[in-house]
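ingest -> validate -> predict -> emit
validate: passed (alphabet ok, no gaps, 52 aa)
predict: started
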Amino acid sequence: MNGYRELLGTDFDGRSTDGIDDMIYDAFESPRHRKRVPGLVALMNDPGAREI
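emit:
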């Protein structure tokens, strides 16, 4: 899991979500967000990643 859509466009069960807000708020209630941290860090440090 390392692409923008996989990291921020799906919930923790792999279902597509309309906005990253739902995923971000769900992270407050579930420790499953920790699995995405390495991918998010890599995405933030990727100079070729698209800006949102």
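The chain has a mean pLDDT of 83.
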